[in-house]
Design brief:
Radius of gyration: 27 Å
Structural class: mainly beta
Largest sheet: 9 strands, mixed
Shape: elongated
Strand content: 35-45%
Length: 401
Amino acid sequence: MSGARTAPPGRVAAPMAGARTGYITLFDVRFEHGYYNASGGTCPDFRVVPAPACAALMSQLGMVFRDHGTGFSVLVTQARAAATIAWVRSNYAAGPQGQGYWTWLSFLMVPTNPGFISITNLPITTNPMVQNLHFDNRAAVSVGGRMLLSGGGEDALYPVTGASWSVPTPAGRIAALRDLSGAPVAARASVSDGVTRFDLSTLPYGWYNVAVTSKTGKPVAAKGVPDTRLYVPQNPLSLVLLDLLLAQPVAGVGDAAAFPIPPMAAPPAKGAAPPPAEIQPVALTVAFQPRATYWRYYVVAQGRGHFADDLAITGGSVAFTKSAKALPNGDQAVLFSAGTPLPLHQRAPQRFALSGHRQGADGSRDAISVARLPTAPATPVWPLSSPKEALSGSSEIYVYV
């Protein structure tokens, strides 16, 4: 039977060229952004850097990393594919904390567009030196035949830390560091004056969590500090830490189609042969949403005279309120403020028109007609005073007529 090869969501058919190239794709990750509607959503705003421990692991396992400018791929030599699966099997954790196949690759997504925060549905105050986004493929969901990781909103933002992390630890309490799996991490620590200081300098860059318990092991809330932080380098300055698990850690955690090694049960008894497994290439899309801002048109009269009361902006279903505004340079402007936020786009679909009249001091009356007003630029975006609209902002557009 002939025909096109098909694959379930998240899977990409292994390329026929694999036999010639000698490589099998583990992950093919693409970046999309709703702002870039003129280029099909393809996002060119990141370069990707494997974290040092990840780079060393990929070299050990015979993996190859390729940055495509709008995403990246991780491949493994065909000769090492079986050894990679065996290595994942050998790293099964049987303990109550971090139980399962917790093996992952860590990548730093370094922004190359200084205006990325302005165009993205993130708090306008987001500072990569203070906080980063964290994604991993356990959260990937199938949408329209693709496996998506959402890159918007503030839920995925975590504070970043350097190599030292101090956590308040009152008397009778014990603080323990845990990694992405939830298993304790053997980090150097010292306790004094009610504070536990963790030294992360010997640990891989990544996601870490602090659990504070009583001496009997009962969980206790650690007040005053976030319990989760991202340990990332200061150089390069990343905005996203992306962890990609090689296998579904335990049954029911994440969509099985998001992991290149099919689900595996706990290792069989000693001496028994494990069931066969084959790498299934995974395609993931990290999708960012555009920021929506309140557009504000400042219409300024050039020359003598003033605008008549009929000056108006029309087009679409957006209502504008009109008011007088004195600009810092002394010019008088008519300010039109949109009542609802509008998404920013590379090619904005909105088409607003300006019409009205200019009234001269001598009684003259000249018609004003601008068939298509300029749309909001990508930058700057000004923060709003309301904390409830941290994901929004205002865009100022100046029109001289």
